[in-house]
Amino acid sequence: LSLQFFKGNCQRELTLRKLTKENCKFNPCLNGGTCIPGKVSCVCTPGWMGRYCHRHCRNVYKSCERWALEDKCEQVRTQTNFFDINCAVSCQQCIPDPKHKFFTVLSNIPVPPTLEPLQFMVGRWYSVASKGFRYPTDMYLNSYEELLDIVPAEVPMFGTPSFNFTSICRSGNDTRVVRGFLTLRANSFPIEVAVLSSSNEGLTMVELGTMSGHIVTLNISYMQVHPSLDSSILPLGATRRFRRNGQFLEMIVAKLFPHNKITQYKKMFRKTQSYPL
């Protein structure tokens, strides 16, 4: 699979508004950060970075040290904040704190700032279904368990970063595995989201949609089916929606079949592992 749907300049970042007195009145800064009117972000304590000091101080790209030596941080600072937020350590925008109490539990790969809007979906999730309803094809038996893993991926040198997206469903000897990518189009409004995936059933899909108010809605826009797969079990179209529901990740699915038959169901996933920023 190739992420060619959301092309763009990886060195563009969304312009941030300056903090106002009204903003600072409620102190949006986290982890001991200080809100100063006129600044574009909070002043963070050692170990933290980001507009609201919500991210651990770390580089996102492995090329950061080389870029800093090439003076990229200073040369293009007036044109883009890409290097400051993606190479904060190398560009001396924050101070790492090795004594930080969470330092040893950080994921090996940080979530790129561009993908922060999808952070609510990131993690390893688990669900048990009492019926065989599954996306996009149903299971043979009436109950199954699903492991959904959305984990940060190595950032590419060029192009849009993405999350690795894996779904594993098991019921007896019936195991369905879907692997792919979850990404978004930077600076789009509403935010455009895509999932590109391939499964051991012989099914390749592209799902396109939008994110609004921390709700991601995806529609199947392309489906390639292997000849060995019984196409009669496939829906004519399908939509699924992800949102946080308390401590759970909720997925609501609607599938359209011939003769206008519609199947709808909801699944609740419980988080079993987090991938910190």
TrEMBL record:
Domain EGF-like: 20-54
The UniProt record lists the keyword Disulfide bond: yes
PROSITE patterns: EGF_1, EGF_3, SHKT
CDD domains attached to this UniProt entry: EGF_CA
Protein species of origin: Brugia pahangi (Filarial nematode worm)
UniProt keyword list: Disulfide bond, EGF-like domain
Protein name: EGF-like domain-containing protein
Disulfide links within the chain: 44-53
Keyword Cytoplasm: no
InterPro entries on file: Calycin, EGF, Nitrobindin, ShKT_dom
All copies of domain ShKT, residue ranges: 57-94
Transmembrane segments: none
